[in-house]
Amino acid sequence: MAVMRNAPFLRVLSEDALKLLAFASEPVDLRPRQSLFEAGDPAEGAVLVLGGQLRLFGSAKGAPPRVAGVGQLVDEIALIIPTQRSASAVAQTTCELLLLPRGQMLKILEEYPDAAQKLQGVLARRATAFMEDVAAISKRLNDPSAS
After folding, report:
1. Residue by residue, what is the 3-state secondary structure of 33-95?
2. Of all helices (H) and strands (E), which one includes residue 140?
3. Tell me, what DSSP letter sits at residue 7?
């Protein structure tokens, strides 16, 4: 529960809502170099790293692999919309993971509308920040003297 509580995307949930999500989640243990999923696979929810390190790669051509450690949520957007895995995931170390199902998250957001509203705010802020980053990059590409 403590790890779930500290994941930024899940902070909008009350203690009771977190318990409901934890109860519906599936624990998974991986050995080093064991694959969890491939980029492009359907994502039925997010993955929370409870212990160890999960190596993520293949999300963009030429992008270096990333490592998700304790408390990080992988493919968090899959908690609220149907999507595909953004990267392939392989255990870098022995891993303890929790597979958080989208279906349960959607039920929780229906039952706790205040959490849904807070989550909408989080997503709106992220989208705004993303668009500002894209605009800044576009400006630099179109006007090299602006850097």
Report:
1. CCEEECCCCEECEEEEEEECCEEEECCCCCCCCEEECCCCEECHHHHCCCEECCCEEEECCCE
2. helix 113-142
3. S
pLDDT of residue 147: 54
CA 29 to CA 126: how far, in whole Å?
Answer: 31
State the residue for tokens 């590409």. Answer: 141
pLDDT digits (tens, 9 = 90+) for 76-114: 999 999 999 989 999 999 999 999 999 999 999 999 998
Q: For residue 141, give Cα distances in angstroms to 61, 134, 145.
A: 20, 10, 9
* Cross-strand bridge partners of residue 84: 42
What pLDDT, on the 0 to 100 scale, is given for residue 61? 67
Residue-level pLDDT at 60: 65
Rounded CA-CA distance 133/140 in Å is 11
